Amino acid sequence: MTREHITTTINGDPVEFLCDAEQTLLDVLRDELRLTGSKEGCASGDCGACSVTLDGRLVCACLVLAAEVEGHEVTTIEGMAVGDQLHPLQQKFLDHAALQCGVCTPGFLVAAKALLDRNSNPTETEVRFWLAGNLCRCTGYDKIVRAVLDTAAEMRG
Amino acid sequence: MRYEVPETKGEAVSLLAMAEGGGRVLAGGTDLLVQLRSGMVKPDVVVDIKKIVETREITAENGGFRVGAAVTGAELDEHKALKKLWPGVVEAVELIGSTQIQGRASMGGNLCNASPAADTVPALIAAGAQCHIAGPDGERTLPVEEFCTGPGVTNLQTGEFLVSFTLPSRPPHSGDAYLRFIPRTEMDIAVVGVGVSLSLDSNGICVAARVGLGAVAATALLVAEAADALIGTSVDEGAIENMISAIRSACRPIDDKRGTIVYRTQVSGVLAGRACRIALQRAEQS
């Protein structure tokens, strides 16, 4: 079977890869490009652990075919910190202990950043609705929501 | 499986026709990728229609809008003029899934997936939306209520695909609304969904109405008797009660884990009444 040759941009860097038509963006990120920050939880778009942005739009990487990203821009959790400098959301998740097992955390961070990029002053209700597609089975939602609100307040200065 | 990204409707039609039923159309993929993974569908070719400009645009047309079949929920939500003209349709789209799903899912996909419980379909039926279909014999137009023929089954023939919708213009004093019932606050499949659209004359008399009903029959229904109960009235409580009776008579639901026949029938009437009052209020304010 011929493999698709895909040219795309991931976290600002030009990237080329080969994939099968069946492979999802999540499969390629994790298994071909070794960007294993995005997690596979449900593989059906319910849990949000594989959240990435595609042309700035929050999506589940498990529901995107890898071949679809040809010519588009993807950002993943690996693009969030700048070198050793954590993004304010990452720091606040640590400060608020907004994680336990950590599997949902990359997805929550990517989703929360997509929210703050659009709305620098969300209400608690807006945060909860925006993050409703990210599931945490350790049930750390309160701490996560507080970390996001605290980050927003700090980033507004 | 092959992946193809045609840039014209003609190429897409050729690919689908050549696949002789072994092709699947990809828009947002929120249903298709789940079906692929579970092995529910095993297509020879997936035809991604998103490079065909018409499937991705919202354009003003004759006082209404042409909306591409692959326009995402997030894009519809951000389109202020469309939301102002057809708030009930956009509300219905917004009810589908999470932020992540809204970033990909489309009205076209929701219709083509042909679930009887699809949220956008009753709202599109109430709006009098038309489907524009491209195929080997050219293009054709079909009212939304005629598109699905059964659960998971559509009117599309081999080689055809849904390109766009027309959401028509509307006179002053018009409003629409969509409500659904689910057992929790967010992200579930409708037990019942009702869309109502109506127009009033300058004296507040209802001159046009359409009511779409979902999740209580094999396909979403256009309930003409419910609209007839409103037309010619001032949409007073008596008229709304008559409309509710017509809605309950039209229900042909199944018993399943989401709701019993009796329950779905009861809730259909309640939701229809509420959606009608919201549509009325919007009509009075527009």
Description:
The complex is a heterodimer of chains A (157) and B (286). Chain A is of the alpha+beta class and 157 residues long. Helix content of chain A is 34%, strand content 16%. Chain A has two domains: 76 residues, Ubiquitin-like (UB roll), CATH 3.10.20.30; 69 residues, [2Fe-2S]-binding domain (DNA polymerase, domain 1, Orthogonal Bundle). In chain A, helix 2 packs across helix 5. In chain B, helix 5 runs antiparallel to helix 8. Chain B has eleven helices and 14 strands. Chain B folds into two domains: 119 residues, 2-Layer Sandwich (Uridine Diphospho-n-acetylenolpyruvylglucosamine Reductase, domain 3), CATH 3.30.465.10; 112 residues, CO dehydrogenase flavoprotein, C-terminal domain (Enolase-like, domain 1, 2-Layer Sandwich). Chain B starts with a strand and ends with a helix. Chains A and B meet through strand 4 and helix 3 of A and helix 2 and helix 6 of B.
Notable characteristics:
heterodimer; A: 157 residues; alpha+beta; Ubiquitin-like (UB roll); DNA polymerase, domain 1; 5-stranded mixed sheet; 5 helices; 34% helix; globular; B: 286 residues; Uridine Diphospho-n-acetylenolpyruvylglucosamine Reductase, domain 3; Enolase-like, domain 1; 2 domains; 5-stranded antiparallel sheet; 11 helices; 35% helix
